[in-house]
Write a structure and sequence with these properties.
single chain; binds zinc ion; 337 residues; globular; 9 strands; two-stranded antiparallel sheet
Length: 337
């Protein structure tokens, strides 16, 4: 019998497993887990101890093979100077301002790793490594240069620039690629076994060829420089770019239920593991454990190596539906190699 950590890492590396691993590179925090653990949004986003306590719920309450403490997508944006709304117990934080007009404005403070939203993540990973690291996989998470440009420059301006001012887009990407490199390396030093790179070049906003032309070189640089397996997260319909993602050197791709699991596995080819694929709004939030189990089995049979929610789960998601992912692939039921 493998430990959860061995199982999760084998899944990410496309190696044989004793049963299908379950985990998520994006947040699985919910209000029900806040009630059970006593660690609450928004306090957790800037305090490592509370962050670690809530993140441990992914294993201790849900039974997943991995934990991931970075619940928001704006830790870096806050540290880089956006004004923030940290939200309430049942809302995600948000960046309110987008202060950088131009790539020349990009400045990364020499104290970046010590700023509270960044230090909290590193502290949480260290704590989780101590409390769970011998048995459970620890996933870190960083934002890629595309997502950081949305936050720091503004999503509409940035998308307009892809058409009108492509050199400005390249300037932002070049300079901002340093942030996930710096933060990612620090998370690995703190104890992360795997890193999630979230870079929201989603199908509804960006064509697959734009991923290839603007982002693929930066992603290749990151996967080469970061010393652990990197899992890319992009939500939405990404089928037209999975082939390019495979070329960027990622160990795995965390993908949305808008992409059929069989089509995704075919597009990923021999070297890219697929992760996720269980629908959030219809199945995990509003569905039943039975319907969740069906979707999990479909994904696993299609060849998805690690099953889990497709993206950060809605905060009101019932615990029973999140646990149903594990029950559907219990080791006694089947083997997967
Ligand atoms: Zn997402």
């Amino acid at each position: 019998m493998m430990t959860p950590r061995e199982r999760f890492l084998a899944g990410i590396r496309r190696r044989p497993v004793d049963c299908v691993p379950v985990g998520s590179p994006t947040s699985v925090a919910t209000v029900e887990q806040m009630q059970r653990t006593g660690a609450w949004f928004p306090d957790v986003h800037q305090h490592g101890e509370a962050m670690a306590v809530l993140a441990a719920g992914a294993h201790d309450i849900l039974g997943y093979d991995a934990v991931m403490p970075v619940f928001s997508v704006v830790q870096e944006a806050a540290a880089l100077g956006c004004e923030m709304s940290w939200g309430k117990a049942d809302t995600m934080p948000d960046a309110l301002t987008h202060p950088w007009r131009d790539p020349d404005a990009v400045t990364i403070s020499s104290t970046f790793l010590d700023l509270p939203p960044i230090r909290a993540v590193l502290d949480a990973i260290r704590r989780l490594k101590r409390s769970h690291g011998d048995r459970v996989a620890i996933i870190g998470k960083v934002m890629g240069p595309w997502t950081l440009s949305y936050h720091m420059h503004g999503i509409q301006d940035f998308l307009a620039d892809t058409l009108l001012e492509p050199e400005r887009v390249r300037g932002f990407i070049d300079r901002l690629t340093h942030v996930p490199l710096l933060f990612g390396r620090a998370q690995v030093e703190a104890g992360a076994d795997v890193l999630c790179l979230a870079d929201h070049a989603t199908g509804d906003l960006v064509r697959g060829t734009m991923y290839r032309d603007f982002l693929l070189p930066a992603h290749r640089e990151l996967t080469r420089a970061l010393p652990v397996p990197v899992v890319l997260h992009i939500c939405g319909d990404t089928l037209d770019r999975i082939g390019f993602i495979a070329q960027a050197g990622f160990a795995a791709f965390h993908f949305d239920s808008k992409v059929d699991a069989k089509a995704a596995v075919e597009a990923a080819g021999a070297d890219l593991a697929l992760v996720g694929n269980v629908n959030n709004p219809e199945l995990l939030l509003r569905g039943s454990p039975e319907r969740v189990s069906e979707a999990v089995r479909y994904a696993a049979v299609a060849g998805v190596r690690v099953v889990g929610p497709e993206c950060a789960v809605p905060l009101q998601t019932p615990t029973a539906n999140l646990q149903a992912i594990v029950s559907a692939v219990r080791c006694t039921s089947r083997t997967f190699a």
